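Intended use. Records such as the DegT/DnrJ/EryC1/StrS aminotransferase family protein entry shown here are meant for training and evaluating sequence-to-structure methods. They are not intended to support clinical decisions.
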Amino acid sequence: MTKLTVGPWIAAQKLPSRDVARDRLAFLTRTQLRQTPQAVAGFPLVGLGGSCGKPCFALPFVLTWTEANTRALEAVAAEFGCYVEYGVYPHLKLPDTDQEVAAVQDWTTFGMVYLRPGYERAEELLVRLAGALAPEAGQA
């Protein structure tokens, strides 16, 4: 799999320059793009991270952290050459640069995965995380 296919769409949402930071009409033009639903590998894009601007994808289940699924998360991270940093919610990071490639959030009515759009294996990682963290995966 590849980088996220929604990269250009996400870039079009961001402030293009400080010159238009107070331009209400430019903002309204950018927000019109949001009317077109976006998805990757069947997972709907539900927004962008407030501070990081990473695209956020909804998982089709409620996520509650347990011993089993945190171990599953660490196994997926290892598959992708990452480690897990446990903060407010877990982040998958590359060990050589500490660059965050994904974050998994549990404190909503559904699980969410934030992904770095330029990460070469982002779509594959999204699919693997969803499979490994699904509630029925932990019952095996």
